[in-house]
Amino acid sequence: MQPIAITTPLFYVNDVPHIGSAYPTIAGDALARFYRLQGHPVRYITGSDEHGQKIERTAEKQGVSPQEHCDRMVAEFQALWQLLDISYDIFIRTSDKRHEAIALEFFQRVWDKGDIYLSQQQGWYCVACEEFKEERELLEGHRCSVHPSITCEWRDEANYFFKLSQYQEKLAEFHRQNPLFVQPESRRNEVLSFIAQGLKDFSISRLHVKNGFPVPHDPQHTLYVWFDALLGYITALLAEDDSPTLANATKYWYPIHLHIIGKDILRFHAIYFPAMLMSAGLAISAGVFGHGLLTKDGLKMGKTLGNTIDPYALVEKYGADAVRYYFLKEIDFGKDGDFNEARFVDIINADLANSLGNLLNRSLGMVQKYCQGRVPLFSADALSELITPVRESATALSDRLIPLYRQLQFSAVCEAILNLVWDCNKLIDSSTPWKLYKAGQQTAVEAVLYCVLESVRIAGYWLSPITPNLSQKIYQQLGLTLERSHQRWGILQAGQPLAEPTPIFQRIG
Fold first, then answer.
1. What's the pLDDT tens digit per position in 394-425?
2. Using alpha carbons only, what angle is made at residue 206 by residues 203 and 209, rounded to the nearest 5 degrees?
């Protein structure tokens, strides 16, 4: 099957990770786990962007070297990813020597193409963004629109430039021919609008910045952090034993299937990077998905308001599955979304504890009472008017969820699974197995309970990219190990012993 490479942003490690870093990483992990379930070879890439002036200044304030600072921050990111059960395949660091070789080879290709030149850069520079800003992007007082508390610095210095303007028509044509390259549609419209306003060449080097790779032929310049960082995605494709060349990096996983990024860095991934790849003679990635921003209790998060979300504390308090589920189910991925702790608790209790957890627990309890603790025998004829719709819904779930996962519609995935869970609860309530048992209708009892258990198994299977631990617990309760081939109906085998039921998810509070 087709190899699938998926990336998060390479996070800028000037500070510890926050919930905005965790959000796309959770989503990317769910997508990577889905493709593994489908049998694809998957390379899930995350990592750190460690160069530039902002990190240099942060390290100076702390009295440490930029590398020491980055080492500390990378350890924080990796610890959080472990807490969140992020199944990344590689954590690429732009300080990696192998990455330097890739970045310099790429630069040389673009240089040889004639797309790099030296000129004077004048403009307003946001150190937080590591980016020159056009006047149309600035707020009053030359403040950055992304970091409104920061006044941009005026710069007038020699820089090397990439001839982005020469790729105006090629980029416009590329986006016309690939209407699904940027998702969702609102992000695509932003990109098309920016291109239509006219593209300007952008600076790809900095003077007086030591934290980065020296520009070949002119080592007093350092490669611009964004030019360097975007190439980290390519470095991450190298096999462990391969020498660091573009040919090796692009021989198996390339082109990348999807970049999952925040909408604030959309331009770099949907305009700058494709133009750079065109210049270097490399294929453009298959897609870019720009997710929305997160708020808390309806307000933008920030240190000044004191309303930031500590992802470590959130996971330690509620568990990884609860955090993963809430952010993927309650926020339509691609749109801005809000975190409210009271709603978080209500949703988790209602969906995972009450609906799904209680369904499995009560069903297994009845199996212990009415079926000697073994998987019941399924009869398609028993209570068919009640059972058949649920069975058909469970059987059809794969066809419904596969396209939703591919489109990153995680909220719709969760809703479809919940609908099956609710149908199972209704089936128990309407069929009343305890009454059927007393009436001696053992075949009907077993048919109902098999239908419910098999449906819960299927629900657990399809939830596993989102709630991997919870899904494993469901499978353990059913005496199974989750396997890729378990999409179909009928995996539970009649007569198989089942353990005493234990709750798979405890209510919060």
1. 999 999 999 999 999 999 999 999 999 999 99
2. 160
